[in-house]
Amino acid sequence: MNTTTDLFARLGEPARMSQLARYGLFHPGLKARMEAIAAHSAHQLNAPISLVSMVLDSAQFLLGAHGVTGWIDEALGTPAEWALCTHTVLAGRPYCLIDATTDAVHADNPLLDMIGVRSYAGVPLIDDSGHVLGAHCIIDVAPRTFTEDDLTVLHHGADQAMEILSAYRTN
Amino acid sequence: MTDIVTSRRPFPVPADEDARLAALAAYDIVDGAPEPDLQLIAQLAADVCGTARAVVNITAAQYQHQVAAVGMAPQVCDRGDSMCTISILEPAAVVLADASTDPRFADNPHVDGTMDSIRLYAASQLRVGDGQVIGTLCVFDTEVRELTAVQRAGLDRLARMVVDVLELRRHSGLLTEALRDREQTLAELEATHQELLRSNTALQQFAGQVSHDLKNPLTGVLGFISSLAEVPAVADDETATWMLQRVMSSSTRMWRMIEDVLAHAAVSGAPDFVPVALSDITGQVLEDLHDAITAADARIDVDELPAVIGDATQLRVLLQNLIGNAVKYRHPQRRSTIRISSALTGGIQSISVADNGRGIPPADRAKVTELFTRVHTDVEGTGIGLATCQRIIAAHHGTLSFRDTPGGGTTVTVTLPPAPTTASASPCGTAAHSSISPAADATEPAGLRRPSMADARDAVHRSHGDAAAPIWAKLLRTSQLTGHETSDDALPQLLRAMTALDPVSRLCAHAIGIRLAAHTNTATTTRSAA
């Protein structure tokens, strides 16, 4: 469990957590607006799944999702060590997975089998404090090579998400 | 700023224009903050219909406002110049391959080349809840072209989405307002609470100080009275002896009263919740009351008593008062028998002290717990004891009730809330999952342990930095888990406390709630697949 301890320590860094805590992430008006962004990116990029999420210290919290079903949709999140967006947040820049079945980094991730993930592209959600709070991504069930144009769509969605979120900042 | 082009051409208005404008005002969209979602929908409308331009028009009293626009800058124009001012009167979407051939629009400045040369024009009405039309979702082009049935249906659906977004925005505005009011009320309550706490503490200190100041001279008085009784001149004088006895008993009563006031003031402190064995406490109380019990020749039966979560000192004061009262207010004609018993009903622990004494008339039961209330004035007392009991019970979130003992006498019953380990709800809406606790040997999904109290502690420590230790201590205190922090059954209760404590703890609690849901759901999947 050393790996998750290290991971949670990196994600749970006090300054980043305080920054996350400044936003009204549980505001009831937020979900529909984030879902609209996810739906838009999913349609634009022809992907079955798209997420706008915050990565907390030990779990990914979906602010808005498109194409997600089952318990992940009910819980609105997944453990941080399973979430692909964790990689995007830790990298602080776009992160892509072309084919999960051939990528050794993700060989042990049970979530990929559970929801049939084959490819992923995510861009970080960064606010004006410089902290990486979360990610906006699309997920596909087929292997996929992503282009700069794909990332531009995601960046556009990420900008809109952060603009909406800025209205929910408390201080 | 957008220029307003005013031509003041006449324009048709709906019959119920006033009602329409009132409906529009509720959305606060014209002068309110811009709505990014509307821009998304306008973009979709342009994509779906394949037009260069798409706008969301809001038709106000004199002007038409474009609150979202694709392929052009949003504009405000006079209603007389607007095409959609005419379209909002229509029962269904207006779709024209060539607007210049339609008599309603042929001489409109947006069509005839004055301002624009629109040909393809399609406007779907924004119809809000009560049927009023507040504007349109409109796509247009300068080329003549038909829209397909799919495109028309898509435009109508997107128009309904615009209304949904506006509805949502209106509701979230109302909610924000309500929350702001609530926060203000809470802040005022908190200020009042702090002020009460402060004045309570001051009063308590005052009562304590005064009582001590009274006790010291009184100790001297009682000492001198004892000595005086032995002085031959007094001891030999019958009247002097009788008077001195009166002084003695009055002073003793005063002493007892001061003791009670001191005890009452001491109870005001916050209870320190720990597991308390009631049988031990009862034993100590009976020892303290030994002289009074012997003098009254009372028979005391004590059933087996449970352990409860509570403040040991306060619970002892409580039992001392209840048993003491039962002995004190015994019936003059029958031997005092007192039974102390307990019951567990629906998770609520109750303790009863039943006596066969004088009883409390039903009419007096409501007031016996008020300070300085005395029902039986012929028996020595201060009227403080039951008031103190009431405060202790309130601090333990319990209840205190009186009823007749069958055959005569009073039964006092105290209820205490269940011990905290039976708490079950979690703050994350995953209560149903978290209360199912798969045994340690259940099939665990790869790499995910069931979240434990240790995980919560780690989360608080890593995410709060230097402030973590006092925050964790406070969490254990507020969730009444001090001494139980290793019991993983108590995790939901701790998560509740985390949700209420500070925003960072709330995020950590939320993350653990997600992990609980993931654990429960994936463990079940793995099991049923196996």
Mind explaining what this structure looks like?
The complex is a heterodimer of chains A (171) and B (530). Chain A has one domain: 2-Layer Sandwich (Beta-Lactamase), CATH 3.30.450. Chain A has 7 helices and 6 strands; from the N terminus they run H-H-H-E-E-H-E-H-E-H-E-E-H. Chain A has helices spanning 2-11, 14-21, 30-45, 70-75, 85-91, 110-115, 148-166, and strands at 49-55, 59-66, 77-79, 95-97, 119-126, 132-140. Chain A is globular, with a radius of gyration of 15 Å. Chain B is an alpha+beta fold. Chain B folds into 3 domains: 4-174, 2-Layer Sandwich (Beta-Lactamase); 271-418, Heat Shock Protein 90 (2-Layer Sandwich); 424-529, no CATH class. In chain B, 49% of the residues lie in helices and 15% in strands. Chain B has helices spanning 17-25, 36-49, 84-87, 149-230, 232-235, 238-267, 278-288, 290-296, 312-328, 362-365, 385-395, 431-434, 453-464, 468-478, 491-501, 503-529; strands at residues 4-5, 53-59, 63-70, 76-78, 94-96, 120-127, 133-141, 274-277, 299-302, 307-310, 337-345, 348-355, 399-404, 410-416. In chain B, the strands form 3 sheets. In chain B, strands 1-4-3-2-7-6-5 form a 7-stranded mixed beta sheet. Chain B has a 5-stranded mixed beta sheet with strand order 9-11-12-14-13. In chain B, strand 3 (63-70) and strand 4 (76-78) form a beta hairpin. The two termini of chain B are 66 Å apart. The chains are: A alpha+beta (171), B alpha+beta (530). Chains A and B meet through helix 1, helix 2, helix 3, strand 2 and helix 4 of A and helix 2, helix 4, helix 13 and helix 16 of B. Chain B: Residues 411-432 have a biased composition (Low complexity). Chain B: It catalyses: ATP + protein L-histidine = ADP + protein N-phospho-L-histidine. Chain B: InterPro entries: BphY/WalK/GraS-like, GAF, GAF-like_dom_sf, HATPase_C_sf, HATPase_dom, His_kinase_dom, HisK_dim/P_dom, HisK_dim/P_sf.
